[in-house]
Amino acid sequence: TPLGRIVKAIAATGQRSMTCYLAQSLVWAAVFTPYLLDMSETLTTTTALLATATWGATILLGDWMRRTGRRGPFETLMRRVAYRNPR
């Protein structure tokens, strides 16, 4: 069902939350940094649309990683750092 696909996509995004959070952070850094797009002074409809598009893109990214059997790259990195074998 379509609702089931949406729930799976959102769950996949949650399972890759660090990767999706950092992807969103990169967008916001570009949008609000004064020497890049510098949209920090005004919160407009454009900003709201960008926020919605960014959120939707991270859900699509998380679902794509789920369908292709990939873990989030930052989740993988965190596991390597946290569970490495001591010498």
Fold and architecture overview:
- The protein is an all-alpha fold.
- It has four helices and no strands.
- It has helices spanning 2-15, 17-32, 45-67, 73-82.
- The model has no long low-confidence stretch (mean pLDDT 89).
SSE blueprint:
Blueprint: H1 2-15, H2 17-32, H3 45-67, H4 73-82
Helix pairs in contact: 1-3, 2-3
Summarize the structure.
This protein has 87 residues and is mainly alpha-helical. Helix content is 72%, strand content 0%.
> Which percent band covers the strand fraction?
under 5%
Distance between the termini: 50 Å
Which stretches of 5+ consecutive residues score pLDDT under 50? none
Number of DSSP helical runs = 4
Structural class assignment = mainly alpha
Instruction: Please state the CA-atom Rg, rounded to the nearest Å.
Output: 16 Å
Number of beta-strand segments: 0
> What percent of the residues sit in helical stretches (DSSP H or I)?
over 70%
- Name the shape in a single word: flat
Major sheet summary line:
none
Average pLDDT: 89
What is the N-to-C order of secondary-structure elements (H for helix, E for strand)? HHHH
Question: Which properties best describe this structure?
Answer:
mainly alpha; 4 helices; 87 residues
